[in-house]
Amino acid sequence: MTDAGGGSRARATRVKICGTTRAEDRDAVVAAGADAVGVICEVPVDTPREVDEETAADLLAGVPPLVTGVLVTIPDSVDDAATLVDALVPDAVQVHGGLSPSELGAFGRRVSQDVVATVDANAGDIAGYADAADALLVDSVDAEGGGGTGETHDWERTREVVDDLDVPVILAGGLTPANVAEAVETVRPFGVDVATGVERVDDAGDRVGGEKGADAVERFVANATRGVRTV
After folding, report:
1. Does some domain include residue 150?
2. 4-21 b/e with 16+ CB inside 10 Å = b?
3. Distance of alpha carbon 101 from its chain centroid, rounded?
4. What is the CATH number of the domain that holds 140?
5. List of residues 6+ apart from 161 with CB closer than 8 A
6. Distance between first and last Cα of the chain
7. Which end of the chain is more exposed for a tag (fewer CB within 10 A), N or C?
């Protein structure tokens, strides 16, 4: 991006808060200055961050202008994915597995929304997914294909992915308010994504799955956007 004088202009790293299950958490994410709100629906993995279609539609409909409401799903087929998008009308779609690169490309041609492909940091077909998607989210994926593991991966390797690919790369996997600034400095991603790292902590010190901690969200956004990247 260039300014009126032809020079480059710096922007803060974009921030997506994922796994939002309640309207009050969505509103806290928006108030904290996040760029995107992620809502998980129709995934075949056991997670407290998934909501049903009715809840997902309500959460996404309440995302205000200039903030992106992202549907996160693991579809069985292109048709299933397209049907869900038609029902929920998100601003963007994050496909967290379930489709091959060719199927992802077919899905992208079926919908008007931007498509973000989630890939395991150690996957061998990253370039194929990058060619089929509008953006790539690099995550730590578990054996069932789901994210939200709370585990980091090799940030230096992800930096190489950022350098090698032309599509925007979003960093996920084990990010917290305490480590996101270092992650951004190391990887220089287009954006960062967090779910478990900003969940509410109860009186016993345990995370409450699916519920966000407003203070943690605010600190995460502030620390992620402390530095800037040139775009």
Report:
1. yes
2. eeeeeeeebbbbbbbbbb
3. 18
4. 3.20.20.70
5. 126, 136, 138, 169
6. 5
7. N
CA angle 217, 16, 77 (to 5 degrees): 135
Tokens of 117: 């492909």
User: For residue 106, what pLDDT is reported?
Assistant: 98
In degrees and rounded to multiples of 5, residue 158 shows phi and psi of -65, -35
The tokens describing 221, both together, are 């956004």
Give Cα 69 distance to the centre of its chain: 10
Q: Determine how β-strand 199-201 pairs with β-strand 36-40.
A: unpaired
Q: Is residue 118 part of a domain?
A: yes
User: Is the predicted pLDDT of residue 218 greater than 80, yes or no?
Assistant: yes
Per the prediction, the chain carries an average pLDDT of 90
Q: What is the rounded CA–CA span in Å between residue 126 and residue 4? A: 35
| Burial grade of 71 (CB within 10 A; 0-12, 13-18, 19 or more) | buried
Please, which residues have CB within 8 angstroms of residue 197's CB and are 6 or more apart in sequence?
150, 174, 175, 176, 177, 180, 216, 220
Rounded CA separation 126/103 (Å): 14
Which of 206, 203, 202, 207 has the alpha carbon at shortest distance from 194? 207
- Residue 152 in domain: yes
Q: Tell me, rounded to whole angstroms, the distance of Cα 47 from its chain centroid.
A: 16
Segment 69-114, tens digit of pLDDT: 999 999 999 999 999 999 999 999 999 988 999 999 999 999 999 9
DSSP 91: S
Residue 26 domain-assigned?
yes
Domain of residue 42: give its range: 12-198
Contact 145, 74 (CB under 8 A): yes
Number of structural domains (the chain) is 1
